[in-house]
Amino acid sequence: MHIKNLRSIDLNLLVILDALLSEGSVTRASTKLHMSQPAVSHALDRLRALFGDALLARQGKAMVRTHKAKQLQPELAALIQHVTRLVALPASPLAELQQIVRISLADYPAAIGLPRLVGRLAAIAPGIRLACQEWREGQDELERLRRGEVDIALSVFPLQPDDIHIETLGTEHYVGVMRHGHPMGASPTLDAFCGYPHIIVSATGATRTMLDAQLEAMGHRRHVGLTVSNFLVVPAIVADSDHIALLPQSLATHWTGAAGLARFTPPLRAPSYEAHVAYHRRHVGDTGIRAVVAEIQTVYRALLET
């Protein structure tokens, strides 16, 4: 039989054939399989057509195996045993895994979370190696997960597609940062806040954010002085200029590079957002990826709570 015809075979028939050959009786096979006798008889007819052989032939009051059936029986028993082991294949212990897990994440989650994540993984799964890739924005990340370019993505996903598993890590809030001695002061008016040059962080080079729409609804427009592609350059620019910025609170709190900045209270409620971790549902049974996701949840939920 050509291999392409395997798609037309109902593998359940082979389980029924194994019972028929071992029991030598439709009645006993149906009892063993918890099936009706007519269903087993119908399956025997299909098996005879498949193999081009009677398989079981009546001899007096008994049914006996044909020569072909006797040839098939040991091969069939071995095949069913192998498939059973394959389906019940145990997962490798975490400590024995040797695996590369590809993660997409922005610079600031990497800066505040990777040291803890690497340390935790080294303790439970030293053979897992992380390959961190440059973060892209939401929809692009979903497509990369679908194409298999990355295994796990940390990002913001407003929707949860059926094929992607998404977990919420927590809510990220923004805090205002400026250099020490900045003339704006720690509690600026809305006019002062809008008048000093702002730094926007955007992976795509955007010059507007949700905050701009919020300000315009209030009749104000801020001065955007600079757009950069990552958060980690912001503290150095702010520390040496009159530029101001809104940083994620977790970055301002946990990254030492932001510790030397002065904070201010924005004169309006800055938008917050939920941070997520996502992986494709085809990886549900992947022990290594699931372990990394679990450690990401532990690390980043703790960071977002403080």
Structure overview:
This protein is 42% helix and 21% strand. It is of the alpha/beta class and 306 residues long. It has three domains: 3-87, Arc Repressor Mutant, subunit A (Orthogonal Bundle); 96-172 and 274-305, D-Maltodextrin-Binding Protein, domain 2 (3-Layer(aba) Sandwich); 174-271, Periplasmic binding protein-like II (D-Maltodextrin-Binding Protein, domain 2), CATH 3.40.190.10. It has a five-stranded mixed β-sheet, sandwiched between helices. The radius of gyration is 32 Å and the shape is elongated.
Determine the N-to-C terminus distance: 64 Å
User: Helicity level, as a percent range?
Assistant: 40-55%
Largest sheet: 5 strands, mixed
Whole-number mean pLDDT: 89
Strand content: 15-25%
Number of contiguous helices:
11
Could you tell me the CATH topology label of the largest domain: D-Maltodextrin-Binding Protein, domain 2
CATH superfamily of the largest domain: Periplasmic binding protein-like II
Number of domains: 3
Question: Rg, please?
Answer: 32 Å
- Tally of extended strands? 12
Shape: elongated
Could you name the CATH class of the largest domain? Alpha Beta
Ranges where pLDDT stays below 50 over 5 or more residues in a row are none
Give the second-level CATH assignment, the architecture of the largest domain. Answer: 3-Layer(aba) Sandwich
The secondary-structure class comes to: alpha/beta
What's the topology here?
Blueprint (H helix, E strand, L loop, with lengths): L11 H12 L2 H8 L3 H15 L4 E4 L2 E4 L1 H21 L11 E7 L1 H18 L3 E7 L3 H10 L4 E4 L8 E9 L1 E5 L11 H6 L2 E4 L8 H8 L6 E5 L5 H6 L4 E5 H6 L7 E3 L8 E8 L6 H19 L1
Parallel strand pairs: 3-4, 3-5, 8-9, 8-10
Antiparallel strand pairs: 1-2, 5-12, 6-12, 7-10, 7-11
